[in-house]
Design a protein that fits this description.
Structural class: alpha+beta
Number of domains: 2
Largest sheet: 9 strands, mixed
Strand content: 15-25%
Number of strands: 21
Radius of gyration: 23 Å
Shape: globular
Amino acid sequence: MTNIRPFRGLRYNPDKFCDLSDVITMPYDRIHEAEQAQYYDLSPYNYVRVILGRRTADDNDENNVYTRARGYLWNWLAEEIFIRDPAPALYVLEQTFKLPNGTVYTRRGLTAALELSTFDEGVVLPHEHTLSGPKVDRLNLTRATAMAWEHIFMLYPDEAGAVNALLQPFLDSHMPALVHEKVIEPDVEQAFWVINDPVLIAAVVAEMANKQPLIIADGHHRYETALNYRDEMRRQHPDAPPNAAFNYVMVTFVSMNDPGLVILPTHRLIHSYTKMDGRALLKGLEPYFVIESMADRTAMEAGLAAATMDHPRFGFYDGNYALLTLKTLNAMAAVAPDRDPHWRALDVAVLHELVIERVMGLSKESVRRLENITYLRDPEPGYVAVDKGEANFMFLLNPTRIEQVRACTVAGERMPQKSTDFFPKIVSGLVALPLHDTLD
């Protein structure tokens, strides 16, 4: 059962911040040093100070990024920079964005507190592996502040669109609490509603109860951190009631059938590679792929877009353009016999198992270390790098389809690295879930 609850969210005080452009951020794992500096410069109240504060050479057990985050929380509460909503609410975030091809999409997310469950319970399923370092970092922040600061981006099945149908009349008749466009990423319009109608909340909670399995799109480390924190708190507070907030995590749910659910491809740029040039590589790939020379980039990208799931296809650029179409998935059954057929049909699995590892001879360890590979959302820098002789060649991919994500996840398969890039990300700073009390 999918058990969601409304909660009294912690938010920036609307009387002090009618525009949140200077204080909200991208998720912490999308913030690099340059973006962190930009966020610091935008406002002394920017959310980055809490979710990814600056480290200093003088940090110690008493004064560090986690204790400073707690200090910001306490000070901003005292200054009424942060306030809590007076009654439990659900929240809706609509993000409107344009892709490079000019197509405009709007994606709707429902934010609620989700009762935590382990993956083996089958309610929530992961689609990728996690690393220990980020989980330690996020757990230290949660311990210091007793807050769920950022969202888990969660996919749920809803072919009939029942949840969004319930929400639509409220959204049509109420102005959003926030509309703005500025985040340090290509502009995305963010519209945010606070739903405090008890009747509607009850209807949405009831409708969500049978929506499973849920699939984590982004936030695997945060979800596993929430489980670890819950277990710690249960040991410390064995008599806590079931509605103790630490039994929950803040989630933004997006329907797998939402027309605005977009997955972007992640292309592979190969550099510093000396075993073979592009022509020799294509010759080595002939047993597995139909190789077609393309006249130009436009023709190659059009052919790439026409690929089918039973014949994964890649674009290839080494100064010349080509399409590589897998002849048969039997080749993947031979190199990865223990993997589920849905996993073997993934473009990224085919590329890494057959091309990068088997033919090019790069090990999984070297790929993890990024010794000869750079991942690109935008292929343009890759074309430039190849033309300048700074890289050997580039593989262009189609985006992973949502039905592939679901099939692999349900089969218990974790997807290869950089298989999915859900766009846009759920921004941080619109609402947070306090974990120190109970959910009303």
